[in-house]
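Long-time lurker. I teach an intro course on protein structure, and each term I like to show students one example going from raw sequence to a predicted 3D structure in token notation. This year I'd like something fresh instead of my usual example. Would anyone be willing to generate the tokens for the chain below so I can use it in lecture? Attribution to the forum is fine with me.
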Amino acid sequence: MAAVNANFWSGKRVLLTGHTGFKGSWAAIWLTRLGARVTGMALPPDQTPSLFELARVADRIDSRLADLRSPDAVASVVRGGDFDLVLHMAAQPIVRTSIEDPIATFETNVMGTAHLLQALRDKAGLAAILTITSDKVYANAETGRAFTEGDALGGKDPYSASKAASEIVVQSFAKSFYAGLPVATARGGNVIGGGDFSRDRLVADIVRAVRAGEAVTLRHPEATRPWQHVLDCLAGYFRHIEALATDPSTPRAINFGPKPGGPEVTVGELASLGVAALGGQPWRHEPDPDSIEARSLAIDAGLARRALGFESRLDAREAVALTMDWYARQAAGEDAGGLCEAQIEGYEAGS
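-- Reply from a regular --
Happy to contribute to a lecture. Here you go:
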């Protein structure tokens, strides 16, 4: 399967939103390794600790702090640089946070996307814009069937609904204002990897519990998700942008999910793998009867394979092992940025 093309990225001017987050920090590190000139736009990191600070990402790129909810702030960053490619990853990404504060979630994920696309309308020299949404954009009736790109959009929680709405915003701007310029969305699975310290995310909760000598609590251990390592997910995004910039027939919405044929891993199974790898206590179950989170979710990544020649390399168990290795080595004193570099190098080499 096709790898990321370093020759394509060398010297490219990239606007990366969300560079202070977990996935955005990994993207910034990898893009600079590929030779891209990255400008980041995001709020300050909201995690303690944060991969952005641990890996000193600000030393690698031109980091601009701005709030997507402010059209003036977004426009100021866009005016301040010239870009070949835009990778829009900034978002409010946590389901439970969206339930606590739905308005801010919609403001960031929907209007923030609109503000960015509006600011980019008159930007000369762009070759492609890719907005990252989610595997949760689909209307999920919990049948267990894997969603394909043509399935209906929906979302019963505010996060999922905001990401589905942002898909419609992107389609609208693309058709109304971006004739001739590829503007697309990528729908990634549940991403795991070293350096995620977010509130209410499973791997981060496991790490915090183990480091505190406590048992992690699970609300829905039976739930299934399309677990995907951050390097697999980012490699798919990068391949998508490469194709958008060079081939006008590239699909404008693509799913990126786990390695085909890999084992389905429940939340409970992932937690068991994680605590075993880090030497933690067995997890415990605390049901949340009021939760509206989906119990099952799966996406079909066949279009990525057919259109881009891309598929993930790591199955869920391999992704968990690589993730927990990062945390174990970081806890032992290894440098976070160096760990990211080493895992990227190993991924590029196919090992």
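Some talking points for your students: DSSP finds 13 helices and eleven strands in the chain. The two ends are 14 Å apart (CA to CA).
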